[in-house]
Amino acid sequence: MFFLSMFKGMKIYLLLALAATITGGYFYIDRLKNNIDTLKINNSKYEDAITSKDAEIVRLNENVIEVRETNTRIRNKSAKLTGEVTALRDKLSKHDLGFLAENKPGLVESVINNAIKNDLKDGLIDIMESEK
Questions:
Q1: Residue 66 lies in a domain
Q2: Which has the higher per-residue pLDDT, 124 or 22?
């Protein structure tokens, strides 16, 4: 008899343990489903962020290419202008105006006077035409 009453008590404990396990399992699975839903939402947000950042990276790379092309054009133009300045310096260094004015003052004076006359004529013509 003692054994039968012990089995009845055991059955109750086993049923309670089984009910607790099933209830705990249900809540555990429910929590896992909620976590999965949250992770799916976060994943979609991250994918959107990655897509926008990829587009931004592409745009920045295009800007870098454009800046490099602009720098190349500027460097080439600078090299060309530096060459022109050097050529002009060489040309002017061959003609020392102070030396010419000292040795041939009449030549330098006539060249300067003629240049001034031509500039004055052009200036007067412009003034008279603008008054009409």
A1: no
A2: 22
